[in-house]
Structures are given as structure tokens and as C-alpha cells.
Write a structure and sequence with these properties.
- 2 copies of one chain form a homodimer.
- Chain A is α+β, with helices and mostly antiparallel strands and 734 residues long.
- Helix content of chain A is 16%, strand content 32%.
- Chain A is built from 13 helices and 37 strands.
- In chain A, a hairpin with a 4-residue loop joins strand 18 and strand 19.
- In chain A, helix 8 packs parallel to helix 9 and helix 11 packs parallel to helix 13.
- Chains A and B meet through helix 1, strand 21, helix 5, helix 8 and helix 9 of A and helix 1, strand 21, helix 8 and helix 9 of B.
């Protein structure tokens, strides 16, 4: 691997060809912007070591021009916009009419995060383009940080350009070589694919392998991948392409054009194939490129958060990072059911609002229980006891509400009501029991992707939560979207997810949305958006298994946008112990499961395994009990996508540190300097490491726990097994 | 015209070919049902005079079979329904496994209506079909009344058939000859076409002429027409095809197959082209055929209401038939604006819930008013005064709320909030002023067809109405539907309209929905659904003019499903008097405008013209002041579609009668026996009739008012002008 040579005084060779340039605050990155011969805006990005993004076009194809302004008279005569000339071009004939440079440097404090203070430092270039033939103005705002670039399209208020429909955004990221890439298939409805590691030229060949069956899926193209996309050059430069603040806009994919070695933006369409309804003044999300000399640089970047708006919630006192257990894993593996009965063929829920629609409502009070319903009062109380005894904040319960007998695969419109429990789930008794034991409940709203039904019931559902002691909700979007034809990541749905977040904030409710759009840092603005799934989580370990290197890639991809509710902490790797029919093996050693509480940053962390499995390994479980979920500082000790990640984090509320390391199937020897510890202080270290004979496939539960007293001068050398890892707690010595 | 011969003992010639038959209570209609050689259900309908509906098939084409029941395990493994064999056939292989006959006879009292008591009397035949190859059960329930037939498909709860998607319903109505028909073009998004009068063989030729431009339109096919479809045979039999109780199902059109001389049902698709998502147990709406010997028989039929469920609202004390004036016609004609300002290019409304979406909100407080905004406090108070002085119940005001500057044609998602008035509309002051004068306000909710936005704001909007003295709302659905790709009459939208009605009932709000699906008698079940537009209303008189015979056809077509808010009462026919640019002429004489309050039944009647126009004709205006909006009894004195309609109605709350007559461009001489009056009583008759030289095009305001004292033994002979008509009030002589 060649080094990223720092030559601050380097003369950028093509600088003179571009009208406008901008340097990063440390002057190591250089952005150039201009219009080409056809009047198409373009840009390139260089570092002092060479080109990062080759000249790349910017613009849009529109479905139609803004229809002439509708007046009262048009209402009367119904003059139709279709009679107007369709001017679709937003990529040629532009000239630069103005530009502004500015600088920004501030340090802000997130409500929760990987660190308690974040510096937002960039130089900005606003370029104003004018398209004379249509008299349209389009600005592009570039922000160049030391660790990368963000830019977005802005459409100011203007007389001749008010409403437009995006046929496609045409933002290019021209590659300079056949880089190595970590990617998943572009898809409008699922992000739950396994990561592929190929050269760019290998994307097409591996696409079909990547597209495995899912509950809802619409692959986006033969060379189309999702963001965030992790890249590495042969020169050892690490790059990451994603987006920030995707609000009222469709989620972006990247279509790889092999002929030009260029990624081109590809937005998620609506039911009509349109990609965005826009009204000036408005802007796109930020398109981001993080650049670094190491994997650690990528993980340390705060570009995604910095490009989002500051917190819009004034009182955030009710937002708490949360560690929880739940009635969940046993159902995922197959040892219990979400549903209450096998005796009901077709569920129709009663509803005073819709009593005209229904012939009859399902009567659960007379239906024979299957005996395998997990969300029963007794079992929930057992989990509350376990949470209280081991210091967990909360208990999640799935399958508590009526409708699980036929919720999936039918695109049912009225599928759940979110307020009616099964007969064996006593909401009041559970509420009181949890309150007595100092444990909060986490609500579960599986929408079955029927979003109209969910929005209609949202106020009532949130009020029900407030009334019954549920300060947080896990929402789910499994299956094809209703309204039918819409996609999980379209403008319409992205608008829906944020609507729920905003409404939840009114009720002081935290939201953890599963199967929703991958995050783009909006949690800075709405920190009650405390979690997302949006990738293959631990559940896939019970659906055949995740790839062994999965957790060494996720922090470079899915987590670039925000935290993931990965639900780690599985101690029993053999799923057949729970359901004899389930032959899946969790592809991880036990200590790597501990490490994930550190390496997979989230303010919401589950201990996903069954209480009885934790009770079998109380010494290892101690790490999960000890590890915090909010941090003062994070140090990325070593990180190579697909190989290993080792991170040290300092508790937000104490001087204690925690280290985690997750490694791939090849194992890894970590050599760690503890120089991040406060000099002069002593720490009690507990090291949870793989035993010598451990491996994910043969001996995953073989671990060793060591205790030492250490200082900042110490170094540790720890060997992780295949699919293994380690965890360390470093508590101030008293 | 040959007479409908009554031969009660006639031996129906093809009776022996069908397994099952059913006679109407009076034995004049005979229904026959069987399966054909391929196992397709079919039926025919005969009267004692001959065949009405020739043998016609019944069934469905499905998009796919019900996917195998999704279990928890399938959730885990994501087994896909697509792997299943797609069995699409619901029209062959059936056998009749059971049938049941029954009779029903009751008299019920509508909350409001054309009469205070309605008899519901029919013989019923339930036929149970079984499709062995797919083990599916489908029942068809036939109800045969003296005046026609209703039938619907029913799908009982069954193990092997739970969820299915309708590709098309294939209900046939086979014609026996090339009948005369009154029709408008089938369209998924508008019902606002002018009626065509052709033979069946002439439908194709006139289709293009009928499809005039509209704010949202998706024509359904070259020979596809809407229901209700009015037909007349050369034998003088009148028939009408429509549907009843269209709930959670797409609206039906009729596709005319010229080769077989048969109408085939054609449902409104969703954004994916699917026509219905069904879950057993469930059923279709009723398909109805009204039959009579005269046009009057068709108008007198109560089949549509009788096939709907009884009222589901327990306390109906808050539902009041309403006569109203409004701030409306001047804007329709072009003399005033809904919008407040010309200075705003692009409206973005503020919203605490969506403050993340918006860059900035439109500030109306600083925008220069256009000076043409009609919904200002002063003008509204003037209308309140007028309403109070002339005994109207309520005042409608359109254009009161922010957003009208760019509401139309852009498919804006967040287009209105329904609670924020323009600066010159003082909600509290108007509320207090109206309350003092004993006048109610009618709210206006133009949704711009953005139904997600409307549903999100519905609770707040209805609460705002309750808080500000608005017991009724006129809702509007102008423009293409958002969610984009959906249609005005799809299952999704039909579900939406009813959702609004049901939610409105919770707030004790009456709803008058414009541009919504044509009614199918659901107002029996939800009598707060007090009005609908769903056809070309009076507003088209200002958009170039309705055809002269329009109001002689509407009662045979649009009104078969329920009342229409036609907004009659225009006294100034020359639109240029309001807006010099508007060259439209109202195609009616003044007295015909009076007649419409009787001939166009509605519990909601507007006096649509400007107060100053009424003040010019106080003698004629007296009829509008006097005419009630709720009835004890209705007598259809003479009625020929496209030619003339004369109806007498008795006030629900007195012994007074009112007569109206509307005639086409040929004029008409009416000879009326007053034998409907109570014998022995004297009545003061005021006759409002066309002057001798009156005509809609030359002299529309020429009328004559005559006063007589009459009894049940009297006869009246009244000549109506071209496009004319008359109105009579018959008050008990004191």
C-alpha cells in the first residue's frame, strides 16, 4: 500500500482549466468547478497526492417543465399543462453567473453520539448557474472538509422555474482507477443484502449472486449499488460515497457505468416511475465523499452529521440512549410465534372507524391459543425481571398486538391497529410491573408496510404508548408498500418516515425504524430517531447466517449514515437449540458478540439472546452489563474494511473506556497502545478474548477472561480467532 | 311505444334450461341462474313482456391466487408467493352446490330523503358455486324486486381461498337489442362529461366527442361508459344499470362489447393496474338493474338505497337537510378569486409537524392583496346577513384558507392545512356574527386530491370546524390524485372517501364531497354523507354551458346513486355581467332554475347566484325561500330522459306540496292532475312559469307568476319554453 503523500505546496496540475477552485481548511483537498463546452456543470476533486474524483458532470433530467402557474381562470377552463412544451434539460446551456466563498468552524454537542463534541469545519463554495434558454437558476453548494466533500443542488425561488418533476438526477462520481469496492445491490425495497467485495469491474459479475430473496425487493439495475459505498484505491486511499440529510427526496443509488468508469446517481422512483416532485425554493440532499489515508479516517469522519441541520427539538431531556432486552430472538429463530393462534384463517380487526368496511371481526377471545405465543404476560414479566436484575433500561416485546396470524405477504391495507393486545398480554399489568421494577417498555409497531393504515392510527398509537409507559417504539416495514406501487425508499416513503419521527417528538417518543430507508444523519436534527435497521442485522444469523466479515464492513457502509439497531449479543450460536428445524449457526465467536457493543455504534443496544443463555455465561455477560451506550470520545485504533475493526470509546458519563474488536474469517492479531487512557491513572482492565482453540465455525463459545491493572503506557497484543474478536473494559482503578 | 304487457301467468319460454329461477314479489320479473358448459355462472332476466337481460356470464379474472398463508417461519425465510402457480380463473369449472330462497319485506325511515318511508321488498336467491379444481367457493346473492334486480358476489371464509387480487370483474349485462342509451365516457378520474344520447351501436362513434378536457382525466376505453347507465328499448321498457354500496371496492364502469351486444364490468385500477385487494369473507358491491314501463318508474325506484346497509349512526339528531348560500359563484364565473394575492409565486405553508421539510413559509401578512379575494370578512358577513334575512340555514365560503395561489396542477403534496385563514378572513369574528344571526357556516376543504395530506390533517381540520361553528364541510378533489398513479375511483380512494365520512360522523359533521366517486346509496348507512357532486354541476354553465337537456338526464343517471349538490338557482344567465371575459350563458330559463330545487333531489340545496341578483327578482326568489329540502312523499308526474321531468313532492314537515318541471330545448306542454293533493283541502298555488316569449337562449329571464286556489280535483296545463320549466308551491289555504 502506497502512502498518501502530504505535499501542501503541490501545484495542482489541472487547476488552471477550471474557473473556480476551493481548498479544504488544511489545504490537502482541492475542488474545481466549471461548466463544460455544452454548458453542463462539472467538478473534480484532488488531494495533494493526486486525483480522487475525475471530472464529473452535475445536473438533472426532468420529466416536464414546471407547468404554467395555475390561476383561478385555469381552474375554470381546465387548461392543461400537457399542452406546454416539455423542456426536460437541466444539464446543458448553463453558465456560471456568480460564486461565493466562505468558511465555517464550530463545535457542537450532539444529544448522543460517538463523541460529546463534534467539530464542523469547512470551506464553502456556492456556485450560481444560469440556464439562459429556459431562464432557470440552479446553484450548487460545495462544502470541503479536511476529510471530504459535500455538495447539493439548490433551486432558489424564481419566477420561471417553480415546480418540476425529476426524471433522474445525473450526479457523477468519475473514478480514477478500477478500485476495490464494498457494496450491496441497488434496490428500491431492501437493504438486507450481504456485502460483496470486488473491483469496480467486478460489480456486474457479482450482482446476481448478491440479490438474494427478500420480503420486498426491486433490484435497481445490473451495475447499480447502494450507498454508502466503500472504496479503496491501489494507492491506499479510502473513499466513501453516501448522502446526508435526505429529506423530502428519494434515496440515491449509484449506477456504475463501466465505459466511463463512473458512478451516476440513480434515485428511487415512485409508483409512476417519477423520482421527485420539487417546488422552488428547494434543494437536494447532500452528496458526500469521505476521503482518508486509512479505514480509521473514514470511521472518524463526521461529515454526514455535520451536513445535517442542528437539532430542531428544543427539550431533549426525554431522549435517552437505551440498552434493552426483548421478547424477540426466540421468535426469530423459530422457537415461538408472534401470532396467538393457529385457528384463525383470516384476520379482520374490529374498528369503530371502519365498521362499514368489515363484515365481521376476528374474535380472539374464543380462538384456541397455539401455546407458542411469546408475548404473554408471564414471559414479559420474566424479561422485566431479567432487565431489572442486570441493569437494562428497557424491554421490547414483539407480537403483543392482534393481527399476526396473516400480517405478511398479502398487502393487507388494514393489517394492525397498534392498540389492541392479544388476550394473554395484559397491558396494564405489564405497565405497572415494569414501572415498579424501574424498567421501561419498548413498543413494537410492525406496519407490514401499510403506511396509510399506520398514519391513520399514529396519533392513537402514540397516545397509547404514552398512557402505558412506552417511551420508545420499534417500527417495522416488512413487505411490499401499501399504497401499492410505491417503494420503501421513494420520496413518498422518506417523507412518511420523517412524519412519524416528527409526530413522535410531539409525544416525546423515541423511534427505531426497521426496514426504513438507510439513515443519512437526520438523527442530528431529530435525535429521537434513535435507531434504524436498514441492513442485514443479527436476525440473518438465524436465517442461514451473515457472512463472517459482515460486521467488519457495516461500520464503513451502513453506519456512515447513522446508528444501526444491530441487536448483537448472541451467546448460543446453534439455532437448533431453540428450534430443531433451524440449522443456522451464528457466524461469530462469543467474544466478538461482546465487541459489537463497541464497534457497532448505536445509542440503542439490545442484548438479543435469551435470558437463559446469558445465565449460562455470567462472566462474559458482565461486559454487556458494563458497556455504556453513549460516549465522550471514540478512537479508531485499527480498521480495514472486510478484515478487522478495533475501536476504543470513553463512556460519556465516567472516565471508563471500552474497547471492541471484530475480525473476519482470517482472524487477526491486534497490537493496541493504551495511550488514549488518561496519563497517570490506573485502570482495571477486563479482557474478554477468544480462547486459543476458538473459531466461529468450530468452537465459538471458547473464550478467556483476563483481568489486569493498566495505564496509558501499556500495550496489549490480542489474537482474535476466525470470525472472532475481543472486548475490553477499562474502569478507573479505585 | 309499445306497452309493457302484464301477463302474470305467462310461461317463460326458456325457463326449463336453467337450474334455478326466482320471481319478483309481483311475479312480473323472472330471474334464471345456472352454470354453462364450461362451468361459468350465468343469469338472465325476463319480464312478462319478454327478455330484459339475455344470458350473461358472471365471474372474475384474478391477478394471482391467494399466496400460501404466511407463517412466522416464512417471515424468517422470506419464502415468496411468486413461486406459487398463478391460478387466475374465477369464471370456469364451477358447479352449483347449494341454493337458498327467501323473501323480505320491511318499511324503513330514512333520516332524510325523497320520502319519509321506504319499502324494501324483494325475493332473494343465494346461489353457492364451488370450483373444484381450486377448491374455491363463490356465492352470488340475487335480490329481485318488483322494479328490478340487485346481485353481488360473496366470498365466504374458506381455508383455500383467503386473499386475492382482482384483475377484472367480468359481470355481463347482455342487451337484447340496439337500445337507446344516455351515457358519459368511462373515466377513472372524472365524471364531469356531458351526457350523450345514442343507440348502443353509436357509443364508439361519439366517445371522442364526449371526452372533453378536464382537471384530471383518464378515459377508460373506446366503448367504456360510466354508470348509472340509462337505457330504453324500442318496446318502451326503461332500464338502468348501476351499483349499490360500493365499499372497499373499485368503482365499476361498463365496457360495451359490440360483437356480443353486451356490457361487461370494468373496474377502476390502482397505480399498479390492479383492481381490488380482497380478503375473504368479503363481497362485491351490488350490481343493480332497475326496470320500468316509464321514466317515472325509474325515478321512483329505491333499489339503490334498499341494497345498502341500514344507518350505522346511532344519534342522527345533528344531521339536518340544509339550504344555503355561499361565497362561490362569483369566483366560478371569474369576477373574484379564491386566492388572496398575485404577489406570491410559490406557496409553502408553515407547519410545526413538517418544519424539517420546508426551507421557508409563505408570509401572507406582508404579501400585497390582489383586491379580488372574495372570502373576506366583510363579504362573508354580507352573505350571512342575506342568509338570515331570507331563511337560509347556512353560508359556504370557499377560498378562506391559505394556499390558493398555486394549489392546482402541480400535484403538491402539502398543499393546504385546512386551519389557517388568509389575513382578511377573521374566523372568530365570522363565527360570532353567524351565531348571532342564527346562521351556520359551511366549511370548505379543497384537498387538491392530495389525500395523504388531507388524512394527516383531518382530525385537526374537523376539530377546527367544531370549534368555529361549521357543522358541514364541502370537500373537493380537483386534479390528479396524490399518491401519484392512483385514481379518483379506485378501491384506495373509495376507501378514503368513506374514511372521511366515518371520521366526520365522530365529530358530528356532515360531508358534501365534490369530485369524489359517484354515490351508490351509502348515504342510507351514513346519512351525514349529505351531498356529492360527481357530475357536471351548475359550475359548467360558467365554463361554456351545460347541454340544455342536462337536467332532464341527471335524475336518470347521476342521481340514481344519491343526491347531488347541483347548486341551482342562477338568475343572471349572462356570465359576462360578472366577468366581462366570460362569454358563457347559463342554458336555462329562470323558472327552470326554480324547478331544479324539486327535480334535482338533494337534502343540501344551494341558492348559487349572487345576493344582488336575487334582490333583482324578489318575486321569483320567493320560491327558493319557500321550497323545503326534505320530503314526505314524491310523485313522478312525467319523466322522459333527455326531454322533460316533472315531479311533485310533499314537504316532510307540513302539508304543503311543491312541483318542479325541467324540459329540454324543445320545450314541453305539461298537463298535471293535482290528485296527489289531500282531497277536500284547499291550496294556495303559486305558479312560476316561463313567459310566452321565454327561451333559454333568447329570453331566459321572462317569467310569469300566477296565483290560484286549487284542490285535488284541479288540473294544470303549463307550457315550458325551450330550456325552460316551471315551479309551483301549493300551500295549505289558511
Amino acid at each position: 500500500m502506497r502512502k498518501f503523500v502530504l505535499l501542501c505546496c503541490l501545484c495542482f496540475c489541472t487547476m488552471h482549466l477550471f474557473s473556480l477552485t476551493l481548498k479544504s481548511p488544511d489545504e490537502r483537498l482541492l475542488l474545481s468547478v466549471d461548466v463544460d463546452n455544452s454548458g453542463c456543470p462539472y467538478y473534480k476533486l484532488e488531494s495533494t497526492a493526486g486525483s480522487l474524483i475525475a471530472p464529473s458532470h452535475l445536473g438533472y433530467v426532468l420529466k416536464r417543465e414546471n407547468p404554467e402557474k395555475a390561476t383561478d381562470f385555469e381552474y375554470r377552463t381546465f387548461a392543461k399543462s400537457e399542452t406546454l412544451e416539455q423542456k426536460q434539460d437541466l444539464f446543458s446551456g448553463f453558465e456560471i453567473i456568480n460564486s461565493q466563498k466562505s468558511s465555517f468552524d464550530e463545535t457542537w454537542k450532539p444529544v448522543w453520539g460517538e463523541e460529546s463534541e463534534i467539530r464542523n469545519h469547512y470551506n464553502e463554495l456556492l456556485v450560481c448557474f444560469h440556464q439562459e434558454k429556459n431562464d432557470r437558476q440552479m446553484n450548487i453548494r460545495f462544502r470541503l472538509f479536511d476529510d471530504g466533500l459535500g455538495f447539493r443542488y439548490e433551486f432558489p425561488d424564481q419566477k420561471s422555474f417553480t415546480y418540476f418533476v425529476i426524471k433522474e438526477e445525473k450526479t457523477e462520481f468519475a473514478m480514477t482507477d478500477d478500485h476495490k469496492a464494498w457494496w450491496i445491490a441497488g434496490d428500491y425495497d431492501t437493504q438486507e443484502y450481504a456485502y460483496m467485495t470486488t473491483r469496480l469491474s467486478g460489480i456486474r459479475g457479482k450482482m446476481k449472486d448478491d440479490i438474494t430473496s427478500n420480503a420486498s425487493q426491486t433490484p435497481a439495475g445490473e451495475t447499480c449499488v447502494q450507498t454508502s459505498l466503500m472504496l479503496k484505491t491501489d494507492d491506499g486511499i479510502y473513499m466513501n460515497i453516501h448522502e446526508a440529510a435526505c429529506i423530502d427526496y428519494a434515496t440515491m443509488h449509484l449506477n456504475y457505468d463501466e465505459k466511463t468508469n463512473t458512478f451516476i446517481s440513480h434515485l428511487t422512483p415512485d409508483a409512476c416511475g417519477d423520482k421527485g416532485y420539487m417546488q422552488t425554493p428547494c434543494h437536494s440532499p447532500w452528496r458526500t465523499l469521505i476521503v482518508g489515508n486509512s479505514g480509521a479516517d473514514i470511521l472518524a469522519s463526521r461529515i454526514t452529521l455535520n451536513l445535517n441541520e442542528p437539532c430542531k427539538i428544543e427539550d431533549t431531556s426525554w431522549i435517552h440512549p437505551t440498552k434493552y432486552v426483548g421478547v424477540w430472538w426466540k421468535m426469530i429463530v423459530g422457537g415461538a410465534h408472534w401470532s396467538y393462534t393457529d385457528a384463525v384463517n383470516s384476520v379482520k380487526l374490529n374498528d369503530k372507524k371502519l365498521n362499514g368496511v368489515l363484515q365481521s371481526a376476528t374474535d380472539y377471545s374464543t380462538a384456541e391459543p397455539s401455546g407458542r405465543h411469546a408475548a404473554n404476560t408471564e414471559n414479559v414479566k420474566r424479561h422485566i425481571d431479567f432487565a431489572a436484575e442486570h441493569g437494562f433500561d428497557a424491554v421490547l416485546v414483539e407480537g403483543w398486538n392482534q393481527g399476526w396470524e396473516d400480517w405478511f405477504g398479502h398487502q393487507k391495507d388494514y393489517v394492525f391497529d397498534f392498540v389492541t393486545p392479544y388476550p394473554d398480554f395484559d397491558v396494564r399489568a405489564i405497565h405497572e410491573y415494569a414501572a415498579q421494577r424501574g424498567v421501561k417498555m419498548i413498543m413494537h409497531h410492525e406496519t407490514s408496510s401499510s403506511v396509510r393504515n399506520y398514519e391513520r392510527r399514529l396519533d392513537e398509537a402514540y397516545q397509547f404508548m404514552v398512557d402505558n409507559g412506552y417511551p420508545a417504539v420499534k417500527s417495522g416495514y416488512v413487505g411490499d408498500i401499501v399504497p401499492r406501487g410505491e417503494h420503501h425508499y421513494s420520496q413518498w416513503l422518506n417523507n412518511h418516515y420523517l412524519y412519524c419521527i416528527q409526530k413522535a417528538a410531539e409525544y416525546k417518543i423515541m423511534v427505531n425504524a426497521h426496514e426504513a430507508t438507510r439513515p443519512t444523519g437526520i438523527c442530528r436534527t431529530y435525535p429521537n430517531w434513535i435507531g434504524n435497521e436498514s441492513a442485514r442485522g443479527t436476525e440473518y444469523e438465524a436465517f442461514g447466517g451473515n457472512t463472517v466479515d459482515h460486521t467488519t464492513i457495516l461500520p464503513f457502509t451502513r453506519l456512515i449514515g447513522g446508528p444501526m439497531d444491530y441487536t448483537p449479543g448472541i451467546f448460543e450460536m446453534d439455532c437448533s437449540k431453540i428450534d430443531p428445524n433451524n440449522k443456522s449457526k451464528v457466524r461469530s465467536t462469543l467474544t466478538r458478540q461482546l465487541a459489537l457493543y463497541v464497534t457497532m455504534y448505536s445509542p440503542l443496544q439490545m442484548a438479543a439472546d435469551l435470558p437463559e443463555n446469558y445465565e449460562r455465561f455470567p462472566d462474559a455477560f458482565k461486559f454487556i452489563e458494563d458497556v455504556p451506550v453513549d460516549w465522550q470520545k471514540s478512537i479508531y485504533l485499527e480498521a480495514e474494511p472486510g478484515d478487522y475493526i478495533t475501536i476504543a470509546r470513553k463512556d460519556k458519563n465516567s472516565e471508563n473506556w471500552f474497547v471492541g474488536s471484530s475480525v473476519d474469517e482470517n482472524g487477526h492479531l491486534s497490537e493496541i497502545k493504551l495511550d488514549f487512557l488518561t496519563p497517570g491513572k490506573k485502570y482495571d482492565a477486563i479482557i474478554y478474548r477468544d480462547a486459543k482453540d476458538a473459531s466461529w465455525d468450530k468452537n465459538p463459545q471458547a473464550y478467556k477472561i483476563e483481568k489486569h491493572t493498566v495505564t496509558s503506557k501499556d500495550k496489549l497484543k490480542i489474537k482474535s480467532a476466525s470470525g472472532g474478536g475481543f472486548a475490553i473494559s477499562l474502569m478507573i482503578h479505585k
